[in-house]
C-alpha cells in the first residue's frame, strides 16, 4: 500500500491508521458493549497491546468477535509500523555506511589536491570557488552539518579535527598540493601550519590570520602566504571609493564576470613558447590574451614584462583574457 511513497507519507499513513484503529475500537466497545468512553478506550488499548489483562467485564458474542477483528487489525498495523521503522533505520545506516566507504575510497585515490581546513564563512567561499573551477579538494570540518549542501554536490568532506595527525593523513596531506587553513582561531591556524609543514615540507600553505602579529607568527611557522580578511576587505573598500573603475575591472577579472579571467599557466616542456620572447610568441594576435606577469623559478614576479622578455619552460605566466581564449591557449601550450 505504501510502496513508492516517501518516508514522511508512509509515516502519515501509519499514524492515521493508529488513530483509526484506536478510535474505531473505542467506538465499537461503546456501541456493542455499552461501555463509557474511558472504559472503551482502556479495552481497546489493552486489546491492541496484547498485555494479557482480563476483560473489564464479560463480553457478548458480538463483542468477542469484534475483539478478534481488532486484534487482527492491530497485529497487521504493528507489523507495518515495525517494517517502516526497520527500513528507516537500516536505510539510514546503509546509506551512511556506503557514503563513508565511497568517501574513504576517493580519499585514498586523490592526489595533487587542495585541503580546506575549516568550513566557515571563509572556507565556504574557497570551496565554492573550487567547485566552480572543478579543482580537486577535501574539506576537513569537525561538524559536517554545515557542509551538507556542498557534500550533495560531490565535494569530499572529512569529519574530524584538522590539527589531528590521523585526520590530516586521511585527507592525503602527503600527496596534497596546497593546504588552506581557515580555522576560526589564530592559534589553531599556527599549530596546523607547523604540523602540516612537518608532515609535508613541499606543501604550499595558505593560512588565515586575524591581525598583523598573527601574520608574522604564521610565516615563521611555515606558511607560504597569509591572508587577513578584514585588512583585504578594508583595502578593497578604499579602492572602491577612490578607484571605482579599477575595482570593477579587478572584480570582473577575479570572478570571471563578462567572460574575463586572470589565469596562471605553466609553460611545459617542448611548448611552442619555450625560448621565445613575448613579441615572438604573438599571444595577443593569436589568442587575444595579454601577459601581465612572468615568474621564473627562484625569481620574483616580473610585472608588466617587456616585449623582449624570453619565456622558458617552467615559467609561470599570469595571463588575462576571455575564458574561451584562455582555454584554447592552455590546450595549445601542451606539446
CATH architecture of the largest domain: 3-Layer(aba) Sandwich
Instruction: Tell me the Rg in angstroms.
Output: 33 Å
Counting DSSP E segments of at least 2 residues, the number of strands comes to 10
Task: Give the termini separation.
Answer: 63 Å
CATH class of the largest domain: Alpha Beta
What name is given to the CATH topology of the largest domain? Answer: Rossmann fold
The general outline is: elongated
Overall tally of domains: 3
Helix/strand order: HHHEHEHEHEHEHEHHEHHEEEH
What is the typical, i.e. mean, pLDDT? 83
How many helices does DSSP assign?
A: 13
Relative strand content: 5-15%
Segments where pLDDT lies below 50 for 5+ residues?
A: none
- Helix % is 40-55%
Biggest sheet character: 6 strands, parallel
Biggest sheet, strands in spatial order?
Answer: 3-2-1-4-5-6
The CATH homologous superfamily of the largest domain: NAD(P)-binding Rossmann-like Domain
Structural class: alpha/beta
Describe, in plain words, how this protein is organized in 3D.
This protein has 335 residues and is an alpha/beta fold. It folds into 3 domains: 7-104, Helix Hairpins (Orthogonal Bundle), CATH 1.10.287.70; 111-233, Rossmann fold (3-Layer(aba) Sandwich); 244-333, 2-Layer Sandwich (Alpha-Beta Plaits), CATH 3.30.70.1450. It contains 13 helices and 10 strands. It has helices spanning 7-32, 37-49, 61-109, 121-133, 148-151, 165-170, 186-199, 212-221, 229-242, 244-255, 278-281, 283-287, 323-333, and strands spanning 114-117, 137-141, 156-159, 178-181, 204-208, 225-227, 260-266, 290-295, 302-303, 316-322. Strand 1 (114-117), helix 4 and strand 2 form a beta-alpha-beta unit. Helix 7 runs parallel beside helix 8 (212-221) and helix 9 (229-242) crosses helix 10. The protein is elongated and about 110 Å long. The protein starts with 6 loop residues before the first helix and ends with a helix. The model has no long low-confidence stretch (mean pLDDT 83).
